């Protein structure tokens, strides 16, 4: 299953990497693609959307599913 969340506040490649690492840390995530220009992250696996949003927000960005 793929879940797409909106992530605001990314301005560079390092931001993308930070969000990707935060999402990979969520239980059930098997793959992540982050695109700062579209402000979206696509997450493969069976992780709960609320947990994904929380991980991104804990990393310092604004997110919603």
Automatic annotation (TrEMBL):
Residues 1-64 form the HMA domain. InterPro entries: HMA_dom, HMA_dom_sf. It holds the Pfam family HMA. This is Heavy-metal-associated domain-containing protein.
């Amino acid at each position: 299953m793929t879940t797409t969340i909106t992530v605001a506040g990314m301005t560079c490649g390092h931001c993308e990497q930070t969000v990707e690492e935060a999402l990979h840390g969520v239980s059930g995530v098997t793959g992540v693609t982050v695109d700062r220009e579209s402000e979206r992250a696509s997450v493969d696996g069976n992780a709960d959307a609320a947990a994904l949003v929380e991980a991104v927000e804990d990393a310092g960005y604004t997110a919603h599913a």
